[in-house]
Design a protein that fits this description.
The strands form 5 sheets. The protein has a 10-stranded mixed β-sheet with strand order 9-7-5-2-10-1-11-15-19-20, with helices on both faces. Strands 14, 16, 17 and 18 form a 4-stranded mixed β-sheet that branches. A two-stranded antiparallel sheet has the order 3-4. The model has no long low-confidence stretch (mean pLDDT 95). The chain contains 14 helices and 20 strands. A hairpin with a 2-residue loop joins β16 and β17. The N and C termini lie close together (10 Å). It has 434 residues and is of the alpha/beta class. The protein folds into 2 domains: 326 residues, 3-Layer(aba) Sandwich (Adenylosuccinate Synthetase, Chain A, domain 1); 95 residues, Adenylosuccinate Synthetase, subunit A, domain 2 (Orthogonal Bundle). The structure holds inosinic acid (IMP). Inosinic acid binds next to α4.
Length: 434
């Protein structure tokens, strides 16, 4: 068994939720390491459907420990709403849900600023408007308020007041900031604190102890590599470290403790929000992928932009994360498409680029160089054995592996947990997954 990082290899929404859901059965602990309540993972429990944004879905499995690491930013009202919904379904949190005291709070002024920045921006990012960016800005500017600070009401209130006055001074014309009331935010958060205080811990210490006891941790990132604040398509990124390195800084677990890194990629590509996307399909084909793949945000409902598989981007993700393997998701969405295209390089002002460029403005000018492969025009939905996939589909998978240089360990053929091909092999064996 192993401590494994699961990381998105594209622009998020790759299907990490399903993979984490499958794998969490074999792990003792699921730890979230960055992001806030933007990523949505819909879980179905009996007749009920809940969208989880913060609480790892591992909470639904009996006996599993779930941790929100220090790298996560927490909108406390939203977290409590999720916990309440889960408790109504008889999910128990005591003794197996922990929140890092070091995690920063997303406060009402962060949401106001998120929306205001987008409205004023010359080039919009297309954020989720959940206050994530401004909360991380405060963290980096060393004026953020951490969830553990709620322990000292006087200190919390002073910081809150100071921050709100500062924001108002920075944006004097913002009417929403003017209407925010310190006492109301303070009172609300004190109440919330009473609800969650029993879950607050030094999560780095707890994770270290669990690992020493021989427990196995699954580290779950939000968003994906190309939305990472350092390594993504800056400035069209989220404000945290979504790549594998973030798992260590976002939980306080040493890199020496990590045994494997699994990347998640769709069999095609999607992106939400603004920013360059070389393989985007803006035509009817793109629309049909969107419909077939149900590519609408679980959080904002926004239609996702769709396009062909981009091997340049995945190769880059494989390198910066050190991917040992990939899970290839939503293969069945390609069932009707013929031919299928795969981007192998970019053409930039006459040059052939085989490496992902550092600058978004260069990426925006890149033209994809495609290889055309035959489609399979046959349903693969729910296929459980690779040998039963149509030959053209098997060739597609093998070709992607060759192009990105990383083996596919899991292949998803439908939304359900059981609609998955798990490829046995020494790697999965060493991770204790087969
Ligand atoms: P923010 O994280 O709300 O600041 O948004 C920054 C960028 O990341 C925008 O392009 C969002 O659409 C994108 N983004 C944020 N969360 C997600 C997610 O869960 N899936 C996909 N894209 C996301």
């Amino acid at each position: 068994m192993a401590n494994l990082i699961v990381v998105g290899a594209q622009w998020g929404d790759e299907g990490k939720g399903k993979v984490v859901d499958i794998l969490s059965e074999r792990f003792d602990v699921v730890a979230r390491y960055q992001g806030g309540n933007t990523a949505g993972h819909t879980v179905v429990v009996g007749e009920d459907k809940i969208v989880l944004h913060l609480v790892p879905s591992g909470i639904l499995r009996k006996g599993k420990i779930c941790v929100l690491g220090n790298g996560v930013v927490i909108d406390l009202g939203e977290l409590i709403h999720e916990m309440d919904q889960l408790e109504r379904l008889h999910v128990r949190f005591e003794d197996h849900f922990f929140i890092s005291r070091r995690a920063h709070l997303v406060l009402p002024y962060h949401k106001v600023l998120d929306v205001a920045h987008e409205e004023r921006a010359a080039k919009k990012i297309g954020t989720t408007g959940r206050g994530i960016g401004p909360a991380y800005v405060d963290k980096m500017a060393r004026v953020g308020i951490r969830i553990g600070d709620l322990h000292e009401p006087g200190l919390f209130r002073d910081r809150l007041q100071h921050n709100l006055l500062e924001k108002r001074a920075q944006f004097p014309e913002n009417p929403a900031l003017a209407t925010l009331d310190v006492e109301q935010i303070f009172g609300g958060h004190r109440k919330h604190y009473e609800r969650i205080r029993g879950f607050l811990v030094d999560s780095a210490q707890i994770l270290d102890r669990l690992i020493r006891e021989g427990k196995h941790v699954l580290f779950e990132g939000a968003q994906g590599t190309l939305l990472d604040v350092d390594l993504g398509t800056y400035p069209y990124v989220t404000s945290s470290s979504a790549t594998a390195g973030g798992a260590c800084t976002g939980t306080g677990v040493s890199p020496k403790r990590i045994d494997g890194i699994l990347g998640i990629s769709k069999a095609y590509t999607t992106r939400v929000g603004e920013g360059p996307f070389p393989t985007e399909l803006t035509d009817a084909l793109g629309e049909s992928v969107r419909i077939r793949g149900q590519e609408f945000g679980a959080t904002t409902g926004r239609p996702r932009r769709t396009g062909w598989f981009d091997a340049v981007g995945i190769r880059y993700a494989a390198r910066v994360n050190g991917l040992d393997a990939l899970a290839l998701m939503k293969l069945d969405v390609l069932d009707e498409l013929d031919p299928i295209q795969v981007c192998t390089a970019y053409r930039y002002r006459g040059d052939l680029l085989t490496e992902f460029p550092n600058e978004s403005n260069i990426l925006a000018e890149c033209q994809p160089v495609y290889e055309t492969l035959p489609g399979w025009r046959q349903s693969t939905v729910g296929t459980l054995e690779e040998a039963k996939l149509p030959p053209a589909c098997r060739s597609y998978i093998r070709h992607l592996e060759t192009l990105v240089g990383v083996p596919m360990a899991l292949i998803s053929t439908g939304p359900r947990r059981d609609q998955t091909i798990i490829r046995p092999g020494p790697l999965l064996d060493s991770w204790g997954l087969v």
